[in-house]
Amino acid sequence: MSIAPEPVSLRLAEILGALSEALDLTEGQPPGHCMRCCYIGVRLGGVLHLTPRQTGELYYTLLLKDLGCSSNAARICELYLADDLGFKQGFKEIDDSLAHVLKFILQQTGLKAGLAERFRTLVNIARNGGAIAQELIETRCQRGAAIARKLRFGEAVCSGIMSLDEHWNGGGRPAGLAREAIPLFSRIALLAQVVDVFFQAKGREAALAEVRERSGSWFDPALVAAFEALACDDGLWETLSSRSLAEQVLALEPPQERLGADEDYLDDIAEAFAEVVDSKSPYTSGHSERVALFTDMIAEAMEYDPEHRRRLKRAALLHDIGKLGISNAILDKPGKLDAAEFAQVRSHPVYSEMILSKIAAFSELATIGGAHHERLDGKGYPRGLTAEAIGLDTRIVTVADIFDALTADRPYRAAMPLSQALATLDADTGTAVDGQVVAALRRALKKLDAEEVAQAAA
After folding, report:
1. Which residue among 50, 122, 349, 365 is least enclosed by CB atoms within 10 Å?
2. Could you check whether the bond before residue 382 is cis, i.e. omega within 30 degrees of 0?
3. pLDDT tens per residue across span 43-75
């Protein structure tokens, strides 16, 4: 089955709202976290009487506030010897008192490490805690703002993402901004984030209590007062738990500020979120881009038309978006995975399909994302599909994915030489992979070699 063309223009909010669930995964948050933050923040913006232009900018700041969240996942695992997803989720659910922060770190650090390794890690954190926190937040904020720029957003949105972790009293990061020097969108986003985290974990009263407790330290007191007024509306809390949340968030974007996404913008979106995915692990840096390149080379060798190649390339860029829901403690593990860990890895295509299927125009991309680890003989995952249920487009991405995995360094082995990787694909032809696709990859690589020789001779 080939990928059907998307409409010329799509609602940008619908696309980015769906993709924001990938950001929820890598932050260890319940699905819909960014959407709920968007609803809270835009409703708060209404109390503040923001203009339609400001509301539109705030809307995308809230949906995309966690764009940089994957970039510090591997470092969290390395520094704290912890599951990054659980660590991030738990850290957001404690208050900001030093005693509770220290208790959390002591409880979470190095739980599966040896005693000596855990002791060394805790000593390092005690000595360098401030520098570690600065590094992690700075990396996240800078990467998030940079990706927002790639998504064509202006500085109001980018600075809102960049300053998400700044605190009203100047005790936040990465720049130690205080009071009105913190962009308004950042102040709203942080408050909305804390409200949602505590509402999901402990309920309405706990969320209100936490906001009041942090007034004047984390939060602008004027924003807290505005939120307290908003919180009297029972409908706010009901919507946050409603199945119609996504539709209501879409309706909140000011009509005059609504943005569309044409074919070129869809390419930019796919490339930006591929960067989010590949930032999660040093071993997958550039993986989605390379899979997209190999996919396009194969499709060209198989004489696909340019528009089909373009859409297939998007599928390749987004095929691994579900990996944002897998802990780096597993993705970067140097040894063999145990059964429970491998079961988690096998879930990532399910996440990919779940996220992409929420975008109507990406239904075929969702199919590829969900099936790129299936095998022709039915021994793949997650569903054990056999050849007749695996379309040619999926088979192309599968070969491109395997080829890149074989020719790139992994935590458990070094990269294979090109000849060995091709021999491995040959050995799996007819059982795991499609022979005509492998043959097309060979033709594409030979053409590339011929072009390089021609350029060298010119």
Report:
1. 122
2. yes
3. 999 999 999 999 999 999 999 999 998 876 767
* Number of residues in the chain: 458
Cβ pair 175, 142 in contact under 8 A:
no
Alpha helix (H) ranges present in 348-391? 348-356, 363-371
Q: How far apart are CA 218 and CA 168, in angstroms?
A: 5
Range 141-162 average pLDDT:
95
Amino acid at site 317: L
Tokens read off for 18: 């769906």
Query: H-type helices in 3-32, by residue range?
Result: 12-26
Listed in sequence order, the residues at least 6 apart from 225 whose beta carbon sits closer than 8 Å to its beta carbon are: none
367 burial type by CB count under 10 A (0-12 exposed, 13-18 middle, 19+ buried): buried
pLDDT, mean over the chain: 88
**Residue 269, CA distances (Å) to 298, 307, 350, 424 in order:** 23, 17, 21, 33
Strand partners, 11: 260
Q: Which two tokens stand for residue 171?
A: 């005790």
With tokens 């923040």, the residue in question is 41
- Of the candidates 446, 351, 441, the one whose C-alpha atom is nearest the C-alpha of residue 397 is 441
Contacts of 45 (CB under 8 A, 6+ apart): 54, 55, 58, 188
Q: What domains sit in the chain, N to C, each tagged with a CATH number?
A: 11-257 (1.10.3210.10), 263-457 (1.10.3210.10)
Higher pLDDT, 137 or 452: 137
Contact 4, 364 (CB under 8 A): yes
pTM of the model: 0.87
pLDDT in tens, 28-39: 888 999 999 999
Q: Give the residue numbers annotated as catalytic, written as ranges.
A: 323
Main-chain phi, psi angles of 228, to 5 degrees: -60, -35
